[in-house]
Amino acid sequence: MESAAMAQVAYNFKIPFIIIIREISDIVNNENNYDDYKKFIRKASINSSKTAVNLIKLM
Fold it and tell me: Where is the Nucleoside phosphorylase domain (predicted)?
């Protein structure tokens, strides 16, 4: 949902290209969503930041 909003704003301001990096930190419709979130948020954050750094290096 948030990605769609960012894409819409970019489109409205005629920004031709954006990159959106998302990382999944839990499993939808799982009884243990909160436990999954706590378990994976750190890993998801690290993976997202590594991806962002690598993309910047490629630019």
Answer: 1-56
Half-sphere exposure of 18 (CA within 13 A, CB side): 16
What count of residues does the chain have? 59
Q: Are 18 and 5 in contact (CB under 8 A)?
A: no
Dist CA 40 CA 36 (whole Å): 6
Q: Which residue has the tokens 């290209």?
A: 17
pLDDT in tens, 36-53: 777 788 888 898 899 999
- Element (DSSP H or E) covering residue 4: helix 2-12
pTM: 0.57
